[in-house]
Amino acid sequence: METFTCPACGERLFFRNAVCGCGAAVAFDPETRAFALLDDACAPCANRDAIGCNWRAGGAGGGLCASCAMTRTMPDLAVADNAALWTEAEEAKRQVLANLMRWGLFTARDASPAPVFDMLAEQTESGAARVMMGHLDGVVTINIAEADPAVREARRQQMAERYRTMTGHFRHELGHFVFARLAAAEGFLDAFRAL
User: Which of 83, 105, 106, 167 has the highest CB neighbour count under 10 A?
Assistant: First the structure.
């Protein structure tokens, strides 16, 4: 497990931390892969209070971080459990994006378009909805119902899968997105098939 350092006291921080044990409020910066102190030079993501996002605000409008700015559609928050499920889904998304950003994908250095995410719920104010996870033309659809461990486990058993995680769903769908980007580069498919 990767650990980080508190910029105030030097103690160890973990990826999900928003506050150090010393009391310093911090935010993760995916560009530098380090935590920064929240101050005039480092603003928190606008979703910090709503979903516990611990990333720093990026250059995107609305004060969102790089991860939250990629969310095009939020679930229906009028339904009681959807806020908690969305929070868990966004946490899994940040984990996967941080790893891909380590390789320069979806960062300021990456001139290609980033994916957008539709975070949809099966339960809406107007009733039940069918949500299919997938990727199409740069849009990743995630069913936040699977952020509930009981729902996810039931589906894992139903589909006879060895494991099933929210992080795995994001990795899978982003794998399609990244492969489509790479496949568009001249010579990639021939080299890939030669492996």
Answer: 106
